[in-house]
Amino acid sequence: MVAQVSNNTIYETKTQEIAKQLLAATKENRSFFAQMRDQMRWDDKLLGWAMSNPGLRVQLFRFIDCLPSLRSKPEIARHLQEYLGDESVELPAALKGLLNFANADSMPGQLAATTVSTAVETLAHKYISGENIRQVIKTVERLRKDKMAFTIDLLGEAVITEEEAQSYLDRYLELMEQLTEAAKSWSTVEAIDSADGEPLPKVQVSVKITAFYSQFDPLDEKGSQEKVSDRIRILLRRAKELGAAVHFDMEQYAYKDLTLSILKQVLLEDEFRSRTDIGITIQAYLRDSEKDLRDLIAWAKLRGNPVTIRLVKGAYWDQETIKSAQRDWPQPVYNDKAATDINYEKITQLMLENHEYIYSAIGSHNVRSQARAMAIAETLNVPRRRFEMQVLYGMADKLAKSIVDRGYRVRVYCPYGDLIPGMAYLIRRLLENTANSSFLRQSLEERPIEELLAPPTLKNGKIDSQAEFTKVFPNVADTDYADKEERVRSQQAIQTVRQQLGKTYSPLINGEYVNTSQTVDSVNPSNPSEIVGKIGLLSVEQAEQAIKAAKAAFPAWRKTPVRERAGVLRKAGELMEKRRAELTAWMVLETGKPVREGDGEVSEAIDFCRYYADEMERLEQGYNYDIPGENNRYNYQPRGISLIISPWNFPLAIPTGMTVASLVAGNCTLLKPAEVSSVITAKLTEILIEAGVPSGVFQYVPGKGSTVGSYMVKHPDVHMITFTGSQEVGCQIYADAAILQPGQKHLKRVIAEMGGKNAIVVDESADLDQAVAGVVQSAFGYSGQKCSACSRVIVLESIYDVFVPRLVEATRSLNVGAAENPSTKVGPVIDANAHKRIKEYIEKGRQEAKVALEMSAPENGYFIGPVIFSEVSPTGIIAQEEIFGPVLSVIRVKDFQSAIDVANGTNFALTGGLYSRTPSHIEKAQAEFEVGNLYINRGITGAIVSRQPFGGFKLSGVGSKAGGPDYLLQFLEPRAVTENIQRQGFAPIEGAE
After folding, report:
1. Is 790 an active-site residue?
2. Helix %, strand %, coil % of the chain (to 5)
3. Residue 641 in contact with residue 717, Cβ under 8 Å?
């Protein structure tokens, strides 16, 4: 059994005593001249201003984030003015004076650039222990003179290529070799090099295991584990040979469970089971951190040899909170700092009370937190080998020294590396230093000692609830595949669905499934010999029966109360949620959509059901424009018979959205799906019928587009056609619908979404880690077969030669394979025709541009490996025509205006993206980039209902945006009714007696 946490109160008196002593020791008695000198330093000024001015803090840190990408003093000066010259920012007089230059090229501009960039560099060197190993060795030798141990962390937040992952490992191997070589000349420091008669490694490194594999993904548990474990073993073997210790950091919450699982398994292997020079990290701000720690203690007891557990509060609070809000997931971190502090003390106690099984490393800059650990350790007489204190380099130097003076082992966490990869780390340190809740800031502000050292207390005595954010519409959450149960459920669903393959799916006419004389096989594009289902194809005569049934059902359906129609949609959404894993599996097998992409599509379909139900209830209220003596009412009525022609690339979400919008508006609706995705629409049909759609109101009418589809488009009783697909077919439908047929008493409404030639612009200030990852996902997610996919990336000349190689290597790192494999990032294209057409475009590309990358792909299936063309002409065929496959054109441009011109230089206007940290460029793109959906500093696919209503203009389509407030209006006819309510000159007047 794991030891139980003892009563808190027994440690409090000792905590207060130690904390007061530590606090007194950290107080400064500096000379007047030293204080004056610091007031003149720009790095200190910047920090001081950030603390006192929240608006300036935000803009200043955004500028600092951007700074390493700026390549000249005029660029720096221009960005300084753009960020800090914002009207919303109140500037201190000194800073206002510094920024008072008319031209970024001027001497005052250059002076401002030099002053601020030097100050930021000085700030960076406060928190980053060196830019190379030589500098790091000097730093750690200085620390050792102060009787402090160290652990070295290689800076870098993103590993997006396998080349970078290998380099990360190689750099750690080199780091350990050089440090241990240098350590041979170090004299022994008893306080840190031995404890309880046992020698301790002089060298320790801290690593992030996700950096060992660029495709690290909890969904691909097995593949990630194999890749990462191999590199962990190499690192640990070399560390043993050299006599170095290794500590494993913890990163984002999504990776936590898999990280712990991998480390537990590797460290139980015979080769590593006896090692006690290895550490694992726990983050106290996580709500499940206590459970994780208890599991680790039980595991360590089973292992029989201790490992070090480093306890930290956690560095990604903002990121975790924002991510969970955006994805509608539970917030994994505590929302209240006091709750984190309470949990930290509780876990500290639990760790030290289990010192028999684990070593503890208490990482904090909070005097109370460190004093608490010492109080517990002293009360329990915990041996000195079994615990140590840790601080971050540059964050709590005086606290560290005072702890050393008390005879404790202190280890300083020392990040090192170039400034660009180090910038995210620097921003986190600056945020921590300037946050209102920061202990460091509060102690600088001379808060009363009693307040600083008081035990953390919860508001209302309760653990804080989830963070709440106001949302216009509550979207449904995607599946979190970091949860092992969800991964298992996904694989089981694929196995279950596979057992149901090969069935026949017949059309549904007037509530009955009908036999057909013709069928077509729908096959698995990952394995075309596997028949997913046989689809009964409607004849023209059966199409006529369906239209008659719809016409007969319309009078009753239009009179059905909106509340009931909306109820049917909400019920359909509930059924989809229950069948989520199954529906995803059908998409994986019928359309070659990887699991995570399919799951997001189920969410979108559910959102459409709920959103359009809400919207129709809003629209039903109509508008009142009454005046005395006259009522004026504006309301809506359904159009009549609605034909939906849906695509294969979003085989559930798009047909669901178009169909339920039509139904909830009161129209009788016929759904004709793409042949290659008709099994999934048959499953949608089952759901709508179970949800309560009456006979004749909804009908499933698979058939040949050229015959049955054309017949229904031209039919005089059809009132509207909603289409998503190719430009060629969309324009034909538009033309056919415009012709008045004999007996037709209305003009047909056509809604058509017809694709795009979508571009992402990357400028010189872009975060290249973010830009490369965003372009790769946008271009090659679902093999480039999304209407929103990126098919052009337009890169400014100054960064072109840096960006393209990283783009190529990141793409090369993608796994190409069957959609059902958890590791797959690029699956098959939809069918043989698509395969042939894309291959033809690739051949055209060879003639027009340079092949930067052409990846191989499996032979047995409709696979095409990602292809990247560089030096593409903006007017070339591959830069102008929609390819709808994993083919990306990279275009070089001289300046930002040229980038916008090239982006706008096609017939389409669907989606576009910009990666930039230049405010004027962002503003210009918002005004001039001709697209229906513009995405800034993120990928351009994956529009979410209500948040990002989707649709374009020019030849990308006609009609209002799907998932937006105008969409249902297209399925309705507006009516205005005016009634004179006077009788013989009398009418009630509101408010009169």
Report:
1. no
2. 50, 15, 35
3. yes
Active site residue 753: yes
Confidence class of residue 444 from pLDDT cuts 50, 70 and 90? low
809 touches 167 (CB < 8 A)? no
Q: What is the pLDDT of residues 21-69, one digit of tens each?
A: 998 888 765 444 444 444 457 777 777 777 778 888 888 889 988 998 9
Structural Rg of the chain based on CA atoms = 32
Tell me the pLDDT of the chain averaged across its residues. 93
What distance in Å separates the CA atoms of residue 644 and residue 727, rounded to the nearest whole number? 16
The structure tokens listed for 319 are 């990121």
> Residue 749 phi/psi, 5° resolution?
-90, 130
pLDDT band at 1 (very low <50, low <70, confident <90, very high): very low
Scanning the structure block, which residue is given the tokens 């959205």?
Answer: 657
Annotated catalytic residue: which of 82, 753, 764, 820?
753
Predicted local confidence at residue 434, as pLDDT = 66
The beta strand positions in 457-548, using DSSP E, are: 503-505, 508-509, 512-513, 518-524, 527-537
403 vs 422: CA distance, rounded Å: 28
pTM: 0.94
Closest C-alpha to 453, from 921, 911, 13, 155: 13
> What pLDDT is stored for residue 985 in this prediction?
72
Q: What is the distance between the alpha carbons of residues 425 and 4, in angstroms, rounded to a whole number?
A: 36
CA distance 164 to 155: 13
Dist. CA 58–CA 986, nearest whole Å: 63
Element (H, E) at 440: helix 439-444
Which pLDDT belongs to residue 35?
A: 44
Comparing CA positions, the residue from 719, 722, 707, 710 lying closest to residue 744 is 719
Catalytic residue among 787, 790, 820, 882: 787
Indicate the helix (H) or strand (E) that contains 262. helix 253-267
